[in-house]
Structures are given as C-alpha cells and as structure tokens.
Specification:
- The protein has 321 residues and is of the alpha/beta class.
- It has a six-stranded mixed β-sheet with strand order 1-2-10-7-8-9, sandwiched between helices. Strands 5-4-3-6 form a four-stranded parallel β-sheet, sandwiched between helices.
- Helix 2 runs parallel beside helix 4.
- The longest helix has 17 residues.
- The model has no long low-confidence stretch (mean pLDDT 93).
C-alpha cells in the first residue's frame, strides 16, 4: 500500500491540516557554536521540542483523529519502544480515548511511568520490541479494537510526513535530509512528501550499526530478521514487522543509507549538548552522526538534520555524562 508520490502528498497535506492546531510547528535553526565547524547551510529540525519530546506525536494524533465514533469508544492498542507509546497515550488522553500500550522489558522504567501518568494501561511482554508488537496486534484482533502501529500504518506515516510539509514552508531549497530510521515511518513520510514537491532532495537514512533491521532488509530486497545489539538509539531499536508498508516505501524514497557506531552516536550527542545545549536522544544522535560521517560531501549544500526526539532513558543519560 505504498501508493504514488501524489497519493502520499495529498494524504500528508490532509494530515497537516488535520493536526496543525494540535502539534507544534517545530523550528528549523542553524547551528550556533557548532558554526565554527559546520557550514551555515546545515540546518537542524528540532522535533525534540515537539509535544511529548518526539515527532511520534504527529503520527499518533493523525491516526487517532481518524477513528470513527465506534472505534474511539472501544479504545486503541499499540506497541512501543517508548516514544510512540507516550505519543499515543498523550493523543488518546487529549481526544478522550482509552489506550493500552504493549512494551518489551527493554523500555526504561522512567518511560513506562511517564506513559502510565498519561492514563494509559501498560503491558510488559516478551523479550523484544517485535514480541510486544505481535502481542498487541493479537489482542487487537481478539477484541476488535484498533491497533495503532508505530510505523506500519499509512495514517501514522502521513502524520510523520507533516515534518516535511513544515520543512518545505520553512526553507526555500533543501539538497539533503538526514533521518534516523527504525521502523521507517518518519523517513517514509518525509521522503514521500519531498519526492513529490522537491524531487532533487536526497533522502539519507541513518542507522546504528547495532540495530540496522530495515537497512539490511532494503539491501537484501526483502524483510529479514537481523540480530540486535544494545544501542544508544533506543527509539529506533527492534525488528521490522513482516509485510510492513515502510519497506516498499523505503525502497522508493531512500537514496542513501549510512551506518554509525555507538561511539559515533555518543560523540554526536555530546557535540550537540556541549556546543548547542541540546540534550537529545540517541536516535537524534544517529542522524547527526550520519551527517558528520559524510559532511565534506555536503559542504556547499543545504542540509537538514532531523533531531527526532529528546527523551533519554537514565541509562543513556548516564553514558552521555
């Protein structure tokens, strides 16, 4: 169900109109202190300043806003590594909808408590993110309630794509966008919209070396299981669901893939903190680390780095010290 560029453009524009009064239009800024090292053409899109501290609020709000009255009364389920669960819980509370969130034991206690404080019911199941996802989907089928996927849902993808609608209004010209990738919803939405309105813009997907599920699937031409190792980029960790629409969409919109090490992620996070005062999560560090790896190639080009979130677990925050 990947659709054409025009289909996605119209879906994303509709999402933008639907949620623009609820979500924040996050700023695009040039670097401050980092300008000593970076070209002024390098821009940062500060989704870490979005409600709930992550771009995920966009997709959750759009998806829940499209429920009919019967679906809304029944409530929704989802699975999450943290940010999507918090986004669904917050959007559900705003719209008066009951939400249940399935997570793996890998999600930090702090994130779980934050989700519970939004009024959602939390279930800790399995051993990894895919286990939680499959359990939530099974419960949704059994109860007839809607499952709100973190990425494998066109309404969620369209909501994430509103980042690109804002970028297109905020900047006259964009040569390249660096985006951290987990399930592929954010890069799919951004890429689908920009390919329709700015086809010259290069879409670069960035992954931790320790968690490259969609990257490896794209390389092999099919969705594959990839061994997972711990990563600072907790919000992009996990496998890709079989049949995910983000796989085909990724094939269409991702022009380049970049893998970064844990040391590179941590170094990027520290640079953003020390030079700009931005304390961002590992996934945001992945996008900046991906850019830094190839910065010389983009020296004279207008580049946007998506700082996708600012929700650090205590463990990651301790490593950042």
């Amino acid at each position: 169900m990947s659709g054409t560029s025009l289909d996605w453009k119209e879906r994303i524009l509709a999402a933008h109109e639907r949620i623009r009064s609820i979500v924040l239009e996050t700023p695009v800024v040039s670097s401050g202190d980092l300008a000593r090292y970076l070209s002024p053409l390098v821009k940062f899109k500060l989704e870490n300043q979005q409600h709930t501290g992550s771009f995920k609020f966009r997709g959750a709000t759009n998806s829940l806003s499209l429920l009919n009255s019967e679906q809304a009364r029944a409530g929704v389920l989802t699975s999450s590594t943290g940010n999507h669960g918090l986004a669904v819980a917050t959007a559900a509370r705003t719209l008066g909808i009951r939400a249940e969130i399935y997570v793996s034991p890998q999600v930090s206690a702090v994130k779980l408590e934050t989700i519970r404080n939004c009024g959602a019911e939390v279930h800790v199941v399995g051993s990894n993110a895919l286990d939680a996802e499959l359990a939530a989907r099974a419960t949704a089928r059994e109860t007839g309630r809607m499952y709100i996927s973190p990425y494998n849902d066109p309404n969620v993808i369209a909501g994430q794509g509103t980042v690109a609608v804002e970028l297109n209004h905020q900047l006259q010209h964009i040569d390249a966008v660096f985006v951290a990738v987990g399930g592929g919803g954010l890069i799919g939405g951004i890429g689908a919209y920009l390919k329709a309105v700015s086809p010259h813009t290069e879409i670069i997907g960035c992954w931790p070396e320790n968690s490259p599920a969609l990257c490896e699937s794209l390389k092999r031409g099919r969705i594959v299981e990839v061994p997972e190792r711990p990563t600072l980029s907790e919000s992009t960790a996990g496998s890709v669901e079989p049949g995910a629409i983000t796989f085909e969409l990724g094939q269409q919109v991702i022009d380049r893939t970049v893998l970064v090490s844990e040391a590179e992620i941590l170094g990027a996070m520290r640079q953003l903190r020390d030079h700009e005062g931005w304390v961002v999560e590992g996934a945001a560090g992945v996008a900046f680390a991906g850019f830094l790896k190839y910065a010389e190639e983009y020296a004279d080009r207008t580049v946007v780095i998506i700082l996708c979130g600012g929700n650090l677990s205590p463990g990651v925050l301790q490593q950042l010290q």
